[in-house]
Amino acid sequence: MFKRILVANRGEIALRIMRTCREMGIDTACVYSEEDKDSQYLDMASRAICIGPAAAGESYLKGDRIVAAAEMVGADAIHPGYGFLAENAQFADMCRESNIQFIGPSSDSIRLLGDKAAARQVAKKAKVQTVPGSDGVVEDDKEALKVAAKIGYPVMVKALAGGGGRGLRVADSEGDLKKALSMSRQEAMTAFKDAGVYLEKYIENPRHVEVQILADQKGHIVHLFERDCTVQRRYQKLIEESPSPGIENRTRDEICKSAVRLCKSAGYYNAATVEFVVDQKGKAYFIEVNTRIQVEHPVTEMITGIDLIKAMIHIAAGEALPFTQKELKRNGASIECRINAEDPDHGFRPCAGTIERFNAVSGLGVRLDTHAHTGYRISPRYDSMIGKLIVHRRTRDEAIACMRRCLAELRVDPIKSTIGLYQRIMTDDVFISGKFDTKYVERFLAG
């Protein structure tokens, strides 16, 4: 087992990883930017190393500085968390070339499954249903128009190296498609330094359901059931839960087994999330694999009792999974709300500033993953998420009731946040019914 792990991230996920390491008796070091130098969570690490100025491109995205920091403190492993370099194959190679274990999959898996077109081919070989679309990158507009004519409008233009909705456009006609191709390529090049795009049939009003996977380096692989992340805005997830409401058990079983087959076919190990869309008829289509821990991983931890960060560390150390698929059981229902420093009443405008009053919440089955506190300054330079509120109860109705209570208690004054929006959603008949799709939030906000 590792003696010291360097946490190559910031905020709540950095704190989350350090807590598990402390429980495992593993020493931790943490990197930080000049912007984060006063963050309290740094105190939990035995060493904290500044790796650059506030801009992520000059700090958290500088793989060479992170590896140098790991070498300086004698870390034998690096956990990348999510975002930043978590799905960067070059960074994974850089770690291992320096004899530092990257806590995640192989760089080959990151490259293979991070390439959306290649991931589709893996899915097809594993007999996992994919959304109709191009076989790979569309090289020019002429080829794209031909594919669109074959699969039918509307179509989605997606960035090959994309994520989080960046580089993604929907086109309803040839004219729309030409504009969408230009915009997606530009956005993809800016965000990912890769202008490659491909086409998929646009599945209208679907559910978005994902499956948590764990696989060891000995070939054993399991799923830890599904999470529903249908409540989202502009492809950014807001509320996640498990089990997924509104899908049949047949569909639930199908996507979980499909996720396992796909990862086996890819020779994958460590944690992954396999994402699907489910259409109005209950048919599921694979869309992508995230080769890292997800923001919403606590939902799975609540219903299974398994610490996913701990599992990732054991797998990276070469250990076998300590459980089989048959031994895994789902217990109750869990819901997570992402607490973002954004103003939903003004287009989700980011709200930086200092928290003058921070009221945490607690109680049976309640978990608040956050690095925020009274006096914490929310930076405009990073993601607006300042925490995650997760509840767990016997049933979904009980979980909703618990979430209502917690949202009423949680305060991050005077910062505008998504708390008020979630309070309204938790009393909305459509959400309570479980019969919603990915356009639910837009319709809800429109009144």
How would you describe this structure to a colleague?
The protein has helices at residues 11-23, 63-73, 89-97, 107-114, 116-125, 141-151, 174-192, 249-265, 297-304, 308-316, 396-409, 419-425, 429-433, 440-446; strands at 4-7, 27-32, 47-50, 77-79, 101-102, 155-159, 169-171, 197-201, 207-215, 221-233, 236-242, 270-278, 284-290, 333-340, 342-343, 349-350, 353-354, 357-359, 366-370, 377-378, 385-393, 411-413. It has 447 residues and is of the alpha+beta class. The protein folds into 3 domains: 4-103, 3-Layer(aba) Sandwich (Rossmann fold); 132-201, 2-Layer Sandwich (Dna Ligase, domain 1); 207-446, D-amino Acid Aminotransferase, Chain A, domain 1 (2-Layer Sandwich). Strands 13-12-9-10-11-14-21-19 form an 8-stranded antiparallel sheet, sandwiched between helices. The chain has a 5-stranded parallel sheet with strand order 3-2-1-4-5, with helices on both faces. The chain starts with a strand and ends with a helix.
> What class do helices, strands and sheet pairing give?
alpha+beta
Helical stretch tally: 14
Q: How much helical structure, as a percent, in the residues? A: 25-40%
CATH superfamily of the largest domain: ATP-grasp fold, B domain
The main pleated sheet reads as: 8 strands, antiparallel
Distance between the first and last residues' Cα: 54 Å
Kindly state the number of beta strands.
22
